[in-house]
UniProtKB/TrEMBL annotation:
It comes from Subsaximicrobium wynnwilliamsii. Its cofactor is pyridoxal 5'-phosphate. PROSITE patterns: AA_TRANSFER_CLASS_4. It catalyses: L-isoleucine + 2-oxoglutarate = (S)-3-methyl-2-oxopentanoate + L-glutamate; L-leucine + 2-oxoglutarate = 4-methyl-2-oxopentanoate + L-glutamate; L-valine + 2-oxoglutarate = 3-methyl-2-oxobutanoate + L-glutamate. This is Branched-chain-amino-acid aminotransferase. The lineage of its organism: Bacteria, Pseudomonadati, Bacteroidota, Flavobacteriia, Flavobacteriales. Keywords: Amino-acid biosynthesis, Aminotransferase, Branched-chain amino acid biosynthesis, Pyridoxal phosphate, Transferase. Acts on leucine, isoleucine and valine. The modification N6-(pyridoxal phosphate)lysine is found at K197. The keyword Transferase applies. SUPFAM superfamilies: D-aminoacid aminotransferase-like PLP-dependent enzymes (SSF56752). One of its GO terms (biological process) is L-leucine biosynthetic process. GO terms for molecular function: L-isoleucine-2-oxoglutarate transaminase activity; L-leucine-2-oxoglutarate transaminase activity; L-valine-2-oxoglutarate transaminase activity. Its EC number is 2.6.1.42. Belongs to the class-IV pyridoxal-phosphate-dependent aminotransferase family.
């Protein structure tokens, strides 16, 4: 079923681009934004005219429901530039479907498909001077929707703003990640909003993550909320385990986010004859595998870092170290395969790239 609307995209360009004033060698992630932004308001039961305007602060009433009830969803995706200056998105159809799935769970109206793609492509094209070529460099794209009704009654809003903002992102090496396996706190619960990219999911993670950081861990591996015996996600990433030569990742559910990176890695594993099982995985299984030496790797998977290798985990006050990552590790091999596809350096046999 197609979900389209028919207002014309309105465009107001900046008088002068800021791009020449940016030091791309020294970019903190998510603090610098491009010249333009896209937005489209929902009111009177319909999405209004979509617009691209100069990036700027906006005025929202203090009573807007997003501030009180967190009625907000978002996406994270990237645009890449190859050495010939061609610009690509990676599986943007997946992000479009997911933002509407998230929106539905938060009682937010679905956004029209043609507005999403026209807005996204036009915006990225207008600001493509902000994308640096080179593997690891990208333009991070942040579509999001917020409830903007001026009314603090605890009910779904009648007006919303859909926006896309863009931040240049650099390849950066974060070092190794040590993680704490959650035994008390939970990221999501059955029947909840864990599968949605709901803003509040992130706020709820900050405190337990900070406690873990105070103890020398960078992230928390989330377990199932009821029993804390099954492994679900690593921080804000999906998570993979390698036991002997087999990769294992948990099946998606209403507690686990359906990551584009996760599903792409499962496909790449199949394409490269790497055995990969999608099944529930117990904490006790990786503890045993670590003790007998069969646990080879753990890594997080998400758009921001593609793959983030984990060097150690703590569970029940016991620390388990993992073997060092090298170029034969699945994490290194799969990460370079993904990056090469994203940057138009390898054949794209699954049709994941979309040229702008
Ligand atoms: C966004 C997100 C991911 C990763 O999804 P990608 O589409 O691969 O970026 C994984 N887990 C959670 C909780 C997320 O919010």
């Amino acid at each position: 079923m197609s979900n389209t609307a028919n207002a014309k995209l309105q465009i107001e360009k900046v008088k002068e681009s800021r791009v020449s004033s940016i030091d791309f060698s020294d970019l903190a992630f998510g603090k610098t934004f491009t010249d333009h932004m896209f937005y489209c308001d929902y009111k009177n039961g319909a999405w209004q005219e979509p617009k691209i305007v100069p990036y700027q602060p906006m005025t929202i009433d203090p009573s807007a429901r997003v501030f009180h009830y967190g009625q907000a969803v978002f996406e994270g995706m990237k645009a890449y530039k190859d050495d010939n200056g061609k610009v690509f998105l990676f599986r943007p159809d997946q992000n479009f479907k997911r933002i509407n799935k998230s929106a539905a769970r938060l009682a937010i109206p679905e956004f029209p498909e043609n507005y999403f793609f026209e807005g996204l492509k036009t915006l990225v094209n207008m600001d493509k001077a902000w994308i640096q070529p080179g593997v690891g460099n990208s333009l991070y794209l942040r579509p999001f929707v917020i409830a903007i009704d001026s009314a603090i009654a605890a009910a779904p809003s009648e007006s919303y703003r859909f926006m896309i903002i863009c931040a240049p992102a650099k390849a950066y090496y974060k070092g190794t990640v040590r993680v704490l396996i959650a035994e008390k706190f939970s990221r999501s619960a059955s029947g909840g909003v864990g599968f949605a990219k709901a803003a509040g999911n992130y706020a709820a993670q900050f405190y337990p993550t900070k406690l873990a950081q105070d103890r020398g861990y960078q992230q928390v591996i989330w377990t199932d909320a009821d029993t804390h015996t099954y492994l679900e996600e690593a921080g804000t990433m999906n998570v993979f385990f390698r036991i002997n030569d087999t990769l294992i990742t948990a099946p998606i559910s209403d507690r686990i986010l359906d990551g584009v990176t996760r599903k792409s890695l499962i496909q790449l594993a199949a394409d490269n004859d790497i055995p990969c099982e999608v099944r529930p995985i117990k904490v006790s299984e990786i503890v045993e595998a670590s003790k007998d030496g069969s646990l080879k790797e753990i890594f997080g998977a998400g758009t921001a870092a593609v793959i983030s290798p984990i060097s150690a985990f703590e569970f029940q006050e016991q620390v388990y170290e993992l073997p060092e990552v090298n170029e034969h590790s699945y994490s290194s091999r799969l990460k370079s395969k993904m990056l090469n596809i994203q940057h138009n350096l390898a054949e794209d046999k699954n049709g994941w790239r979309m040229e702008i």
